[in-house]
Structure formats: structure tokens, C-alpha cells
Amino acid sequence: MWRLWAKAIGEKAHKRDNIADKVAIIRTAIFATYLLTNCFIVAGVIRHWNDETNVYVEVKMEEPVPPMVNTLLNRTGQFE
Fold it and tell me: Could you tell me if 31 and 9 are in contact, meaning their C-beta atoms sit under 8 angstroms apart?
């Protein structure tokens, strides 16, 4: 079973079996941490699926600022 698992996680890392087994153990640990992390992410998504939380946003409107227009100019752009 170990031989099949070691082949499933990647090619043999070394010609000597004891070194290849150590590499396979490290790869297994990395895989286990990925799997555990993904399980926590999925559990969090499932737990908060369709939460009925109401979000209220308060918008404050300010007084409009009058445009800065030179009132001494008429429509043709000449001074009055």
C-alpha cells in the first residue's frame, strides 16, 4: 500500500529506498496540510452558506456646492 501511495504522490525521488521514503513522507505531510486547509475552507463556506444577515448602509448627503462660475461673463464669454 505504501509503495502505491508513494508512486501516487510523485516519482521516486532517489535511488535509495530509505531516502525516497523520507521524501514521500514529506510529500504526504504537505498533502495533508493542503487537505486540512481545504476542509476548513469548505466547512466555513458551508457554515456561512445563506446567512440571513441584514447589512444596512447609511448614506449622508451633503449640501450641493454651487459651481464656481465667473458671473461677470455673459454667454458669449465677454465681460458685461
Answer: yes
